[in-house]
Amino acid sequence: MAAAAQILSKQIICKEPGRYIGWPTIIRTRAGELIIAFSGDRDSHICPYGKTEIVRSQDEGRTWSEPVVILNTPLDDRDAGLVETPDGTLISSWFTSVEFGDNPVHKAHAKTLSQQVRDRWKGHWTQRSTDSGL
Fold first, then answer.
1. Is the residue at 7 inside a domain?
2. Nearest Cα residue to 64 out of 85, 92, 33
3. What phi, psi does 115 have (nearest 5°)?
4. Is 1 a domain residue?
5. Which residues contact 38 (CB under 8 A, 6 or more apart)?
6. What band does 44 get if pLDDT is binned at 50, 70 and 90?
7. How many folded domains does the chain comprise?
8. DSSP string of 17-74?
9. Terminus-to-terminus CA distance in the chain, angstroms?
10. How far apart are CA 14 and CA 126, in angstroms?
11. Is residue 25 part of a domain?
12. What pLDDT score was predicted for residue 2?
Protein backbone atom coordinates (compact mmCIF):
# COMPACT_ATOMS: atom_id res chain seq x y z
CA MET A 1 0.00 0.00 0.00
CA ALA A 2 1.31 3.46 -0.92
CA ALA A 3 2.20 5.87 1.87
CA ALA A 4 -0.35 8.59 2.59
CA ALA A 5 0.52 12.26 2.19
CA GLN A 6 1.41 14.08 5.38
CA ILE A 7 0.45 17.73 5.98
CA LEU A 8 3.42 19.45 7.59
CA SER A 9 1.97 22.95 7.94
CA LYS A 10 -0.81 25.24 6.82
CA GLN A 11 -0.30 28.84 5.82
CA ILE A 12 -1.69 31.59 3.64
CA ILE A 13 0.49 32.13 0.60
CA CYS A 14 -1.42 34.91 -1.13
CA LYS A 15 -4.02 37.43 0.00
CA GLU A 16 -6.22 39.46 -2.29
CA PRO A 17 -8.75 40.93 0.17
CA GLY A 18 -12.28 40.87 -1.20
CA ARG A 19 -11.19 38.86 -4.23
CA TYR A 20 -11.47 35.18 -5.15
CA ILE A 21 -8.40 33.05 -5.93
CA GLY A 22 -8.75 29.60 -7.44
CA TRP A 23 -7.22 26.56 -9.10
CA PRO A 24 -3.56 26.70 -8.09
CA THR A 25 -0.76 24.68 -9.65
CA ILE A 26 2.67 24.41 -8.00
CA ILE A 27 6.05 23.45 -9.41
CA ARG A 28 9.54 23.21 -7.99
CA THR A 29 12.08 24.42 -10.52
CA ARG A 30 15.43 22.74 -10.99
CA ALA A 31 16.92 25.72 -9.13
CA GLY A 32 14.70 24.86 -6.14
CA GLU A 33 12.28 27.76 -6.43
CA LEU A 34 8.59 27.06 -5.78
CA ILE A 35 6.19 28.79 -8.18
CA ILE A 36 2.41 28.71 -7.89
CA ALA A 37 0.17 29.82 -10.76
CA PHE A 38 -3.52 30.51 -10.18
CA SER A 39 -6.53 32.45 -11.42
CA GLY A 40 -6.70 35.55 -9.26
CA ASP A 41 -8.26 38.98 -8.81
CA ARG A 42 -11.70 37.47 -9.39
CA ASP A 43 -15.09 38.64 -8.11
CA SER A 44 -16.20 35.04 -7.63
CA HIS A 45 -15.85 31.50 -8.94
CA ILE A 46 -17.65 32.49 -12.14
CA CYS A 47 -16.88 36.03 -13.32
CA PRO A 48 -15.29 37.76 -16.31
CA TYR A 49 -12.24 39.17 -14.52
CA GLY A 50 -9.89 36.23 -13.86
CA LYS A 51 -6.20 36.85 -14.49
CA THR A 52 -3.35 34.35 -14.34
CA GLU A 53 -1.00 35.26 -11.53
CA ILE A 54 2.05 33.68 -9.90
CA VAL A 55 3.70 33.80 -6.50
CA ARG A 56 7.21 32.53 -5.77
CA SER A 57 9.12 31.16 -2.80
CA GLN A 58 12.87 30.77 -2.59
CA ASP A 59 12.89 29.40 0.98
CA GLU A 60 10.89 26.15 0.74
CA GLY A 61 7.56 27.95 1.10
CA ARG A 62 8.23 29.81 4.34
CA THR A 63 7.69 33.16 2.59
CA TRP A 64 6.07 34.09 -0.71
CA SER A 65 6.34 36.99 -3.13
CA GLU A 66 3.47 39.32 -3.86
CA PRO A 67 1.32 38.09 -6.76
CA VAL A 68 2.40 39.03 -10.27
CA VAL A 69 0.00 39.01 -13.22
CA ILE A 70 1.56 36.95 -16.02
CA LEU A 71 -1.40 37.24 -18.39
CA ASN A 72 -4.69 39.03 -18.61
CA THR A 73 -6.73 38.49 -21.75
CA PRO A 74 -10.02 40.35 -22.35
CA LEU A 75 -11.87 37.16 -21.28
CA ASP A 76 -11.89 35.16 -18.04
CA ASP A 77 -8.51 33.41 -17.67
CA ARG A 78 -8.89 30.14 -15.75
CA ASP A 79 -7.13 26.99 -14.53
CA ALA A 80 -3.49 27.96 -14.92
CA GLY A 81 -0.93 25.20 -15.21
CA LEU A 82 2.88 25.32 -15.06
CA VAL A 83 5.71 23.05 -16.13
CA GLU A 84 9.47 23.51 -16.42
CA THR A 85 11.12 21.84 -19.41
CA PRO A 86 14.57 20.20 -19.23
CA ASP A 87 16.20 23.35 -20.65
CA GLY A 88 14.59 25.54 -17.93
CA THR A 89 11.83 27.02 -20.08
CA LEU A 90 8.64 27.66 -18.10
CA ILE A 91 5.40 26.87 -19.91
CA SER A 92 2.09 28.12 -18.57
CA SER A 93 -1.26 26.93 -19.82
CA TRP A 94 -4.79 28.19 -19.29
CA PHE A 95 -8.15 28.44 -20.92
CA THR A 96 -10.51 31.35 -21.37
CA SER A 97 -14.23 31.42 -20.75
CA VAL A 98 -17.18 33.62 -21.65
CA GLU A 99 -19.50 31.92 -19.15
CA PHE A 100 -19.95 34.78 -16.69
CA GLY A 101 -22.96 33.55 -14.72
CA ASP A 102 -26.11 35.43 -13.74
CA ASN A 103 -24.60 38.42 -11.94
CA PRO A 104 -26.06 41.57 -13.60
CA VAL A 105 -22.69 43.36 -13.53
CA HIS A 106 -21.03 40.39 -15.21
CA LYS A 107 -23.81 40.20 -17.81
CA ALA A 108 -23.34 43.92 -18.56
CA HIS A 109 -19.61 43.36 -18.97
CA ALA A 110 -20.27 40.45 -21.36
CA LYS A 111 -22.26 42.80 -23.61
CA THR A 112 -19.17 45.00 -24.01
CA LEU A 113 -17.17 42.14 -25.57
CA SER A 114 -17.46 42.11 -29.34
CA GLN A 115 -17.80 38.85 -31.23
CA GLN A 116 -14.38 39.58 -32.71
CA VAL A 117 -12.83 39.73 -29.21
CA ARG A 118 -14.62 36.52 -28.18
CA ASP A 119 -13.49 34.70 -31.33
CA ARG A 120 -9.91 35.94 -30.98
CA TRP A 121 -9.45 35.03 -27.30
CA LYS A 122 -11.71 32.07 -26.49
CA GLY A 123 -9.81 28.80 -26.27
CA HIS A 124 -6.95 26.90 -24.68
CA TRP A 125 -3.59 28.63 -24.55
CA THR A 126 0.08 28.22 -23.66
CA GLN A 127 2.89 30.69 -23.31
CA ARG A 128 6.55 30.15 -22.58
CA SER A 129 9.26 32.02 -20.75
CA THR A 130 12.99 31.48 -21.15
CA ASP A 131 13.85 33.92 -18.32
CA SER A 132 12.13 32.08 -15.43
CA GLY A 133 8.94 34.05 -15.94
CA LEU A 134 10.54 37.37 -15.06
1. no
2. 33
3. -60, -35
4. no
5. 14, 21, 22, 23, 24, 25, 52, 53, 54, 80
6. very high
7. 1
8. TT-EEEEEEEEE-TTS-EEEEEEEEESSSS-S--EEEEEEESSTTSS-PPPEEEE--S
9. 42
10. 24
11. yes
12. 75
pLDDT in tens, 100-122: 889 999 999 999 999 999 999 99
Q: What's the confidence (pLDDT) of residue 3?
A: 77
Q: Give the global pTM.
A: 0.89
Query: Which tens digit of pLDDT belongs to each residue from 48-98?
Result: 999 999 999 999 999 999 999 999 999 999 999 999 999 999 999 999 999
* Owning domain of residue 38: 20-128
Provide the pairing of β-strand 20-28 with 34-42. Answer: antiparallel
Q: Provide the CB-side half-sphere exposure for 106 (13 A, CA).
A: 18
Q: Helix, strand, coil proportions of the chain in percent (round to 5)? A: 10, 40, 50
The answer to whether residue 13 sits within a structural domain is: no
Contact in structure between 60 and 9 (CB atoms under 8 Å) = no
State residue 134's pLDDT score: 62
